[in-house]
Specification:
The protein is α+β, with helices and mostly antiparallel strands and 152 residues long. It has a single domain, classed as 2-Layer Sandwich (Alpha-Beta Plaits). It is built from 3 helices and 7 strands, in the order αβαββαββββ. The mean pLDDT is 85. The two termini are 24 Å apart. Strands 1, 2, 3, 4, 5, 6 and 7 form a 7-stranded mixed β-sheet that branches.
Length: 152
């Protein structure tokens, strides 16, 4: 499925982005779809800091439409405020947004197609800080079998 491939391409590009950045003392874990349950239940502190990439929804227009198929992606960022070596969530959110705005295509075929919305805040009951980035991407056109130049 194209949305799954988009999510994986985004994970790969963000992994590369944060591997080459030495501003953060602690490695940022990057996950697709969900946090690893076993790791989270055993030792919450080792899950943080993290980036979690989720597919929220998508839209495929009718065949006779000029509209493009789209996929909405949410990127969640988490950090543990008790660990001074972990990055501030807002700095990670900023870095991801700058990357997205400066990159024409993700995985050479997924184009950012919406404004980027973001939000950051602290969990009052825990020492955790979270952020979310919301955006949509255009998906490549899906061609019907045997279709050439819009003729069957």
């Amino acid at each position: 499925m194209t949305a799954t491939e988009l999510r994986t391409c985004l994970k790969n590009e963000l992994t590369t982005l944060f591997q080459t950045d030495y501003c953060y003392e602690k490695k940022i874990n990057i996950y697709e779809n969900e946090l690893p349950k076993n790791k989270y239940e055993q030792d919450t502190k080792n899950v943080f800091p993290f980036i979690l990439i989720e597919v929220e929804n998508g839209e495929i227009p009718p065949d006779d439409s000029d509209e493009k198929s789209t996929c909405k992606i949410n990127i969640l960022v988490g950090s543990n405020l008790d660990d001074e070596k972990q990055p501030e969530v807002l700095s990670v959110v900023d870095k991801v947004i700058l990357f997205l705005k400066s990159t024409l295509y993700i995985g050479k075929k997924y184009k950012l197609s919406s404004s980027i919305k973001w939000q950051a805040g602290k969990d009052e009951a825990t020492p955790f800080e979270y952020g979310i980035i919301e955006m949509s991407f255009e998906l490549p056109d899906i061609k019907k079998k045997g279709e050439v130049n819009n003729y069957v």
